[in-house]
Amino acid sequence: MSDEIDDLVWSDEPIHRSTRDDNIDLENIPTLRINVEEKTFVPLYNVAVEAWIHTFAADITLTQTFINLEDKPIEAIYVFPIEENAAVYALTAEIDDRLIIAEIKRKKVAEAEYNEAIIHGQTATLLRQSAETLDTFIINVGAIPPGKECRVMIRYVTELDLIDGKSIRFVVPSTIAPRYNPELGHLQSPDNTNAEYVQSTPYTISFQIHVERNGISRVANLSHPVNVSTSSELINISTQDVALDRDFIIDIHLPRRPPSMLTAVEQYDSTKYAALTALIPHNLVKSNYMKSEFIFIVDCSGSMEDENKIGLAREAMLLFIRSLPLNSYFNIIRFGSHYQILFESEMISVDYNEETAKQAESLSYSMKADFGGTELLEPLQYLKNNPPTNDRSRQVFILTDGEVSNTNKVIELCRSMSSTTRIFTFGLGHSPSRSLVKGLARATNGHFVFIPPGEKQHS
Predict the structure, then answer these.
(1) CA torsion 430→433→437→443, rounded to 10°?
(2) What range(s) does the VWFA domain occupy (predicted)?
(3) How far apart are CA 226 and CA 45, in angstroms?
(4) Paired residues of 209 in beta bridges
(5) What burial class does residue 111 get, using C-beta atoms within 10 Å of its C-beta: 0-12 exposed, 13-18 middle, 19+ buried?
(6) How do 167-172 and 2-3 pair as beta strands?
(7) Residue 183: its pLDDT value, please?
(8) Can you point out the beta strands (E) in 401-444?
(9) FRET label pair with 192: which of 157, 178, 220, 286, CA 20 to 30 Å apart?
(10) In this structure, is residue 275 part of a structural domain?
(11) Spatial distance between the Cα atoms of 312 and 371, rounded to a whole number of angstroms
(12) Are 404 and 433 within 8 A, CB to CB?
């Protein structure tokens, strides 16, 4: 995405470049890096989110304001998280009373125009989606004049998730966890930034959420204290001074007996309308578990120690083991920098009986976050190389915080197994990778669940 270039007063001072092309680690996000040698940053002054929720879709405006306190013009870069299935449709930047409106262009063309503008001291912006993780965007903004403010506004739309047929969940990701890169052998943050800084930043984020009252019973916040006001048409939710240490989550509860169909109609022109329809099944046919194979893949990497995510995994595994149906087959694979299989068997899985259940429970009680990095691709490749027999249907349950950098490769591998395997993903912690957790389930016609710390698990 590139803008219509706006002239800026030329300066004799060199423009300090970001590290986008130099591949040098940044030490703070989402602050803007401007001077590699001196390690100085453009401070983030304000973050604001405003959202309008229409049934099962949301229109969100994210505004971030930065200030250049240096005595020279700069080019800056920052990274921000976004919902996995969101679509960005507008980007504007205000710099020194100039409004820059972005337009969509091919990546190479946009980058060439942007670089040309920066070289000549002109104002430009560049927005890119992370090619590997899918749920982060990177923006370059330049040139910001000395002592001036930069206000960047991103607008995007996203679908909302239906939870247990009873409520609609709205999520604004506000943290970017470092992702393990198997090629480098260590954690790497998006665009080589250090995401751990977010948890200790002095700035906060504010929210204004407007929910149409039509057909909803109540609104509950699962992540932060909020202020709520109502009118005949809207429920307004607001909060100030929210720390960027967890995702912002709101559940919009439907009536006790929700309708079988929800429809939303929006007029976007004097003569044009857009409509969306969602079907909500009430009586699901129970699956036949005869000859089913259940494979549990549990993340035991070092990052699972944070927020006691490994404790959530242990609790979930014990629930799974005690809920398996008779006449089924199962196995457990723990993974990190390597993977270990509980039952070594030519058939990949073993009979579920009293003896194997006790072994699985014993392993679950003792699981620790001591497997190093997060290399999910290898255990999944093992399953692909050993497909289920013709008389078995394979269900794979993945419990992870999703801190991997090769999200695309993992999803595409699972997509190639979708004819024989369904994957059910469980995102653990305050800010799991939503693109990974949702993407794996969607690629294989499975289902996804997010389990934040403190949430009670049930069958």
Answers:
(1) 160
(2) 293-459
(3) 22
(4) 51, 237
(5) middle
(6) unpaired
(7) 47
(8) 421-428
(9) 157
(10) no
(11) 17
(12) yes
Note whether residue 45 is domain-resident.
yes
Give the residue from 233, 127, 130, 242 showing the smallest Cα distance to 188. 130
Q: Please give the mean pLDDT across all residues of the chain.
A: 76
DSSP helix/strand/coil, 204: coil
Residues 240 and 376 in one domain: no
Same-domain status, 351 and 219: no
Structure tokens at 453: 């710390």
Q: Is 196 helix (H, G, I), strand (E, B) or coil?
A: helix
Q: How far is CA 248 from the centre of its chain?
A: 12
Q: Residue 156: which CATH number?
A: 2.60.40
3-state secondary structure 59-118: EEEEEEEEECCCCCCEEEEEEEECCCCCEEEEEEEEECCEEEEEECCCHHHHHHHHHHHH
Domain count, the chain: 2
Rg (CA), the chain: 24
Mapped onto helix, strand or coil, the DSSP state of residue 122 is coil
Pair 34, 26: CB distance under 8 Å: no
pLDDT, tens digit, 9 for 90 and up, residues 71-112: 887 777 777 778 877 888 888 888 877 888 888 888 889 889
CATH of the domain at 379: 3.40.50.410
In this structure, the answer to whether residues 239 and 297 fall within a common structural domain is: no
Q: Are residues 166 and 313 in the same domain?
A: no
Where helices occur in 195-351 by DSSP H, the ranges are: 309-323
Which residue, 27, 135, 40, 157, is CA-closest to 88?
157
> Quick one: tokens of 406?
């090769």
Chosen domain end from 202, 222, 251: 251
In angstroms, the CA 332 to CA 335 distance is: 10
SS3 call for 292:
strand
Neighbouring C-alpha atoms within 13 Å toward the C-beta of 126: 23
Residues 24 and 173 in one domain: yes
Can you give the pLDDT at residue 181?
43
Tokens of 239: 């909060």
301-359 residue pLDDT tens: 998 998 889 999 999 999 999 999 888 999 999 999 999 999 988 889 999 999 999 99
Extract the tokens encoding 142: 């330049």
Tokens describing residue 339: 């993977």
Residues 175 and 114 in one domain: yes
C-alpha pair distances (Å), 454 with each of 97, 307, 309, 450: 46, 10, 10, 12
Tokens 């709101």 belong to: 250
Q: Give the type of residue at 386.
A: N
Domain hosting residue 245, numbered range:
2-251
